[in-house]
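Fill in residues.
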């Protein structure tokens, strides 16, 4: 009990001395030991890393889960070390509503059949979104959160300890300075003040040693921020990769859906979607490769094209124009729907050209002896 009381009194005295030193520094009544420029740069860099990591983390959470109530619920589950319940995505919920509507309105009707097709596509989109959220959380959010809750807390703790060591050091400097000033004024009590000066010098040496040791520990932790940047860079690449995969899956699902709807719309609405005099998209010559690749193709209907056998025959008999052929790089794999189309592999180079009266969303592609129609959105025109 006596030991605890003594320790408590000692801690209270140290706290009081630091408070006095800190207050006098704020009012400019005491000198402050300044850290070197390199150390200050490390501190500023660490603070900037922490602040921007928090902002990026919060905004990524908003991107993955726009619902604030759902984010709060997931946060509480994580703090309670409980498994977050599985949540239905908006796409999956829309797919469920469409499937139920088709069942009630008539699955054999044109509207019901279309609702079923769209609901299946929305269900696949929802599943892709779920996979993307899971992958992005593990590969990107978790490392950022681990830095803030682990490494940064350790750095903050050591910085506070360094601040206390600095206050102790400056308090010892001030005490020694006062002892020397009193010694210079004293005449008859010289031995007494000599002891005080010796004691203050001893305390200063101890305080300086502890400060230097703590400064080295803190400096090593701050220099570790460079490794944190490397780790976050790797995580950022993983996030971009998962996002690219997600949007590519969504693009393929929607292309498949558009093909399914395009193959039946001419039968459901005869004369509505075919025979239009205006092109579905700007002419190829006025469209840049970047714009063309970003445009969703309008799948041509069966009524506006020749039967597959005739189209294939005509393509083989038609010679490419003397001018107007261009090289194109294939952006994505493409599986030919029929014999009139040319199957494509990503990153291969083919020769393309257009024929008079042809749908502007399609071109004629040639690879060796093979020839067929290819969708413009799958190509990057090079020359």
């Amino acid at each position: 009990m006596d030991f605890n009381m003594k320790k408590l009194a000692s801690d209270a005295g140290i706290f009081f001395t630091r408070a006095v030193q800190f207050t006098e520094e704020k009012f400019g009544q005491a000198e402050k030991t300044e850290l070197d420029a390199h150390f200050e740069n490390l501190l500023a860099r660490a603070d900037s890393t922490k602040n921007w990591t928090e902002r990026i983390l919060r905004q990524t959470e908003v991107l993955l889960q726009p619902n604030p109530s759902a984010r709060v619920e997931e946060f509480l589950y994580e703090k309670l070390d409980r498994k977050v319940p599985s949540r239905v995505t908006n796409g999956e919920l829309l797919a469920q509503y469409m499937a139920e509507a088709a069942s009630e309105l008539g699955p054999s009707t044109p509207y019901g059949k279309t609702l079923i097709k769209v609901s299946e596509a929305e269900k696949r989109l929802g599943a892709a979104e779920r996979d993307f959220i899971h992958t992005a959380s593990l590969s990107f959010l978790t490392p950022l959160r681990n830095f803030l809750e682990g490494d940064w807390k350790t750095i903050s703790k050591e910085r506070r300890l360094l601040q206390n060591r600095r206050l102790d050091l400056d308090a010892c400097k001030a005490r020694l300075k006062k002892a020397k000033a009193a010694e210079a004024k004293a005449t008859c009590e010289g031995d007494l003040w000599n002891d005080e000066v010796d004691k203050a010098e001893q305390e200063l040496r101890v305080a300086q040693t502890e400060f230097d040791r703590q400064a080295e520990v803190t400096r090593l932790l701050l220099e570790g921020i460079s490794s944190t940047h490397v780790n976050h860079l790797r995580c950022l690449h993983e996030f971009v990769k998962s996002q690219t995969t997600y949007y590519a899956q969504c693009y393929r699902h929607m292309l498949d859906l558009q093909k399914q709807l395009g193959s039946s719309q001419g039968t459901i609405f005869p004369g509505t979607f075919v025979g239009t005099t205006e092109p579905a998209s700007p002419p190829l010559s006025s469209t840049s490769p970047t714009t063309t690749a970003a445009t969703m193709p309008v799948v041509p209907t069966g009524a506006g094209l020749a039967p597959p056998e005739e189209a294939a025959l005509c393509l083989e008999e038609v010679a490419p124009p003397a001018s107007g052929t261009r090289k194109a790089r294939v952006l994505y794999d493409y599986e030919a729907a029929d014999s009139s189309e040319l199957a494509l592999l990503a990153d291969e180079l083919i020769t393309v050209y257009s024929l008079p009266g042809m749908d502007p969303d399609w071109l004629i592609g040639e690879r060796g002896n093979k020839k067929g129609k290819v969708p413009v959105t799958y190509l990057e025109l090079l020359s």
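The chain is about 65% helix and 5% strand.
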